[in-house]
């Protein structure tokens, strides 16, 4: 796992534990799984739109948003990127 992903997961877990006021991540956790999952879906659609528009700058930005919201959803469910990596490893065998 890259340091960027590890650091982002650490921040997300810290926000989940501390729930600081004014944090977007905190607001997602407070809104619950349904809202977080909805954001993942919205970002996924935005990735598709950017790809079809052949807008690489927007595509990478939207992909980052999708990845961030996916990490929040994993944390909400008590999972982490390491759990996803384990699936990749299993599939590669």
Main features:
5 helices, Helix Hairpins, 93 residues, single chain, 83% helix
Uncertain stretches = none
Shape: globular
CATH architecture: Orthogonal Bundle
How much of the sequence lies in strands comes to under 5%
Radius of gyration: 14 Å
CATH fold-level name: Helix Hairpins
Individual helix count: 5
CATH homology superfamily? MazG-like
Count of folded domains: 1
Structural write-up:
- The protein has 93 residues and is mainly α.
- It has a single domain (3-83), classed as Helix Hairpins, CATH 1.10.287.
- The chain is 83% helix and 0% strand.
- It has helices at 3-18, 24-31, 33-52, 56-76, 81-92.
- Helix 1 (3-18) packs across helix 4 and helix 3 packs antiparallel against helix 4 (56-76).
Short description:
83% of the residues lie in helices and 0% in strands. It has helices at residues 3-18, 24-31, 33-52, 56-76, 81-92. It starts with a helix and ends with a helix.
SSE layout:
Elements: H1 3-18, H2 24-31, H3 33-52, H4 56-76, H5 81-92
Helix pairs in contact: 1-4, 3-4
């Amino acid at each position: 796992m890259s340091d960027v992903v590890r650091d982002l997961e650490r921040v997300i877990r810290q926000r989940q534990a501390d729930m600081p006021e004014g944090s977007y991540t905190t607001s997602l956790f407070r809104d619950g799984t349904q809202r977080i999952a909805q954001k993942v879906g919205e970002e996924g659609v935005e990735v598709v739109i950017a790809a079809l528009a052949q807008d690489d700058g927007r595509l990478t930005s939207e992909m980052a948003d999708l990845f961030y919201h996916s990490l929040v959803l994993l944390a909400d469910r008590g999972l982490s990127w390491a759990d996803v990596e384990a699936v990749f490893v299993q599939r590669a065998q």
